[in-house]
Amino acid sequence: MAEQSQGNTGVGFECRSHAFPDTHWTLLLTKEIGDKESTVIVDRRFDSLCTSYWYPLYAYLRKRGHSSHDAQDHTQGFFTHLLTRNRIANLDPDQGRFRSYLLGALNHYLSDRRKHAQAAKRGGGQMPLSIDEHTAEGRFQSQLADDLTPEKLFDREWATTILNESKAQLAQDFAAQGKAAIFAEVGEFLTLPPSKGEYLEIAHRLRMTKENVRAIVSRMRKRYKSILRQQILATVSAEEEIDEEIRYLFSAIG
What we know:
Shape: elongated
Number of helices: 11
Number of strands: 0
Largest sheet: none
Helix content: 55-70%
């Protein structure tokens, strides 16, 4: 459904639908099924899942006292572990929040790894993701002053990841419509109110009216909320849990 801005500038923002996996549960189950026709798409989605959610797990491991090298190794090994058929054959989407499942599965993985006293087998020598240890550790070191338990840090970084992914998707929406410059001007207003006269300054730079800017921001926020709900829906087992999960994640960010 297209949305047009007010005034005669012709600058509007079209809300486009995007293909999200039904849930992260079904994503893993699809890998188990191994449908050849969808293998490439599913692999890309799984790679995206790994890329998005490795840092909350890495931060959790570091907060628990693992060295940077070991946290990196455990995180990579864990995602490889998820690719192993006999590890995901019994997944049940009704198990609840994917966030909770992932943290619990990581702890079980570490327990099993300690019992066997050996590195996890890497499927075919392929790693599901590559971690920049310098970047990861720099990010973690900047958080050392935070007095959070490993579990609270995990939840906060999970929430941050969800919000960042939603904002990145919104930025892609704008860019796909040739409006990247507009998003660069108004993107900060997703969570912050404008200061006095700021809309007017932006309007001058974009050569539109202040009312146009206000309308764009209003639609942008609505679209962001929609994307955020889709992101959350992919991590819970039922749509009724979305609002509760959103409240929890915002409280985790503080």
